[in-house]
Amino acid sequence: MKFFIDTANLEQIKEAQALGVLDGVTTNPSLMAKEGITGKNNILKHYVDICKIVDGDVSAEVISTDFESMVKEGEILAELHDQIVVKIPMIKDGVKALKYFSDNQIRTNCTLVFSAGQALLAAKAGATYVSPFIGRLDDISSDGLNLIAEIRHIYDNYAFETQILAASIRHTMHVIDCAKIGADVMTGPLSSIEGLLKHPLTDSGLAKFLADYQKGN
Ligand code: E4P
Q1: pLDDT for residue 127 is more than 90
Q2: pTM of model > 0.85
Q3: Which of 119, 162, 168, 204 has the fewest beta carbons closer than 10 A?
Q4: Which residues contact 42 (CB under 8 A, 6 or more apart)?
């Protein structure tokens, strides 16, 4: 399973990279705004800054919603760095753009996916990644993990190469459950990755080992 961090915060990206298990970064316009990154040029520069920190795929989202503009914008994003993956929303023109980019060897991440049907379309259009937002489904009392399982089943039936990027991860159990189902990638906050480290028996066991070592010295 690949681990992506879902943030535009450079310090957190550095921290995740230093842990040695980071495979990429996802961003979106809201995450950029949260870091105070506004204006086209600043946003483009920020993507390059992220690419310099992480050794892996960096999703950069288009703002346009019509086919021609999405293509223009996506091509500019893809030119920024070879790690950039163009993030395209699951709308009708977005599906056309996914197909265009796939035909032109530009990698894509289809975002805002909330149903198995949308994921099937994204795969048919040749998306590199599909991003089902599991936390946002849970927020409306739907079942995000069930969606991951449905997509896994459909993609395996037809050997689609599109990778399932479980997004909108809120906590560590989401990561573990997505790994059990077979999501190819998870993207979440640093806390969801660092949570994998924690177990009280590890802490108490280590404390005892260190205390016993001191007794013998
Ligand atoms: C994915 O690419 C999105 O940036 C993200 O996972 C959305 O998560 P949220 O629901 O926590 O905003």
Answers
A1: yes
A2: yes
A3: 204
A4: none
